[in-house]
Amino acid sequence: MGKKTGHSYDRADPADRSLLSAAANAALLLEETMSATDHAVSIDLDPVIALDGELFIRRTPPRDRILRVVADPVLNTEVIKPVSRWPEYLRSAVRRMHPPRGLCAHEGALDALVDDYARDVENLLGTIRFAAQVKIQPEGYYANIWDDFVLVSRTHVARLSLSAAD
After folding, report:
1. H-helix or E-strand containing 75?
2. Which of 3, 60, 89, 149 maximizes the CB count within 10 A of its CB?
3. C-alpha 45: how far from its chain's center?
4. Residue 24 main-chain phi, psi, to 5 deg
């Protein structure tokens, strides 16, 4: 796989560490379920930036919200409406990363893992008030498939990146 930024989790408030751990464990379980000998899947929630979300949501145009956590050139943005549907978009992105030889869990079990991960992300960030799926042109990152999401709650903005490489 290619480069990724360092995790901002190291600077997390100690009260948030258990939530970070739950989200990281759920991501690891999804990665292990989706990966095969010749198919590696990566799920990263990084960066996670604390902010005053109420003002950020109301006063910041969507493009600026996205650029706050996405450094790669953005090719396209799809704002997810209603925002409560972001886990469905995540589920669809994860399914696109399914190993070609079907070595991962049954589709229903995979959906349950994605739902658990989405719930852990929301427990960590708070209720998502803005979500967008962004198409990027990653620089120096080698993957066959990638999907990125920008998630904004009242208190955090985060980038959720998924990638698969054969």
Report:
1. strand 74-79
2. 149
3. 5
4. -65, -40
pTM over 0.90: no
Q: pLDDT value at position 104?
A: 52
Residue whose entry in the numeric block shows the structure tokens 């049954």:
106
Crossing angle for the helix pair 107-125 and 86-96, nearest 10 degrees? 130
Which residues lie below 8 Å from residue 95, measured CB to CB, with a gap of 6+? 107, 110
β partners of residue 44: 161
Cα–Cα distance measured from residue 131 to residue 19, given in angstroms and rounded to the nearest whole number: 20
* SS3 at position 111: helix
Distance from C-alpha of 164 to C-alpha of 41, rounded to nearest angstrom: 4
From the list 92, 87, 83, the residue with the least C-alpha distance to 62 is 83
Q: Checking DSSP bridges between strand 74-79 and strand 156-165, what pairing results, if any? A: unpaired
Residue 150 structure tokens: 């920008």
Q: How far apart are CA 61 and CA 11, in angstroms?
A: 27
pLDDT for residue 8: 45
Instruction: Cite the DSSP H helix spans in 39-160.
Output: 53-59, 62-67, 86-96, 107-125
